[in-house]
Amino acid sequence: MNNRQLFLSHLAQTTDFPLMIEIEKAEGVFMFGPEGKKYLDLISGIGVSNVGHRHPKVLEAIQEQLDKYLHLMVYGEYVQSPQVKLAKALCDTLPSHLDNVYLVNSGSEAVEGALKLAKRFTNRREIISCINAYHGSSHGSLSVGGNEIFKRAYRPLLPGVNHIVYGAYSHLEQITENTAAVIIETIQGEAGIKVACKEYFQALRKRCDATGTLLILDEIQAGFGRTGKFWAFEHFDIVPDILVCAKGMGGGMPIGAFIANKTVMGAFKNNPLLGHITTFGGHPVSAAASLATIQVIQEEKLLEQVEAKADLFKKLLVHPMIKGIRNKGLMMAVEFESFEVLKPIIDRAIEKGVITDWFLFCDDSMRIAPPLIISEVEIEQACGLILEAIG
Ligand code: PMP
User: Name one Pfam family in it (predicted).
Assistant: First the structure.
């Protein structure tokens, strides 16, 4: 059997539309299939390869760590240089009160940890999240997700979760003194790139402060430079109580984190048993890759280029079939009439060598989230091929 046959026979599938693209190598913004077929990657493994595939500095950091040690001990027991250096580097990107980092393996795990921490710190049981939010696939993170179709089959889920509309001021009144936390994506990703305004986030922050509710910002998709700021909340002049991140954090390696104030995080210690544990969280190889990723974003001044690159996409992607473009930096959604119109365009673009896709909860829009290192020439090539695919 060839790889595609093995894929369909033995690899669990969770969609009727697997893209089924076979890749043998990836480098920078490009991926290469068998017989050298070359693709321009416009989705970065869903917002992961922000510094491009196999960035040399990331590879070097991984290699250096491979020569030292792999797994040593469950998280937080031994002093491991890649973990502590990464924690410090993360805190240096953040407002000073966010000074304590819990490293995990993925976005869903970061969300789980953040929710547990909020309950533990506030001693409250209710959580508020947003309709159409995506926070992960584990039971807890699914419970705070905001799409009923995804949740239906798994009920009963976490009790005490209520949903509000992202961006709706009047719903903020539902945040009360019983609310442990509000969890919200700073930019809603899987809803198809929805961006609330600064005034909304400031009102949300104010309501959380007034009720003693912790504000958890999910920047798993929007963080690590994707929107042109290192963290998307910087656009809105607010700060979270707990920040969750993953995806772009590892430069292609699996890692995530939830970050809070040392006092808040200390709630996990006030426990006769262990507060929250993980075997592999903050794996040293992933942590080394993550530290290198932060350095690359800073040294290559990637943040400064995001807005101009996004503007170039918007300037070039003009066509009567394109109904509009929503974006915050290089987190973009190109809107079409329907999925039926969009799907063949995506398929033709892939044939032409440009990879895009759609969103979990918004299938009439094309996802564009390229590696931040993409050049102007590559953007021009990509947009030219997308326009050809539209026809
Ligand atoms: N939150 C957001 C905003 C996400 O986009 C995702 C992944 N799409 C997650 C959480 C879950 O992350 P993971 O798949 O790493 O568990």
Answer: Aminotran_3
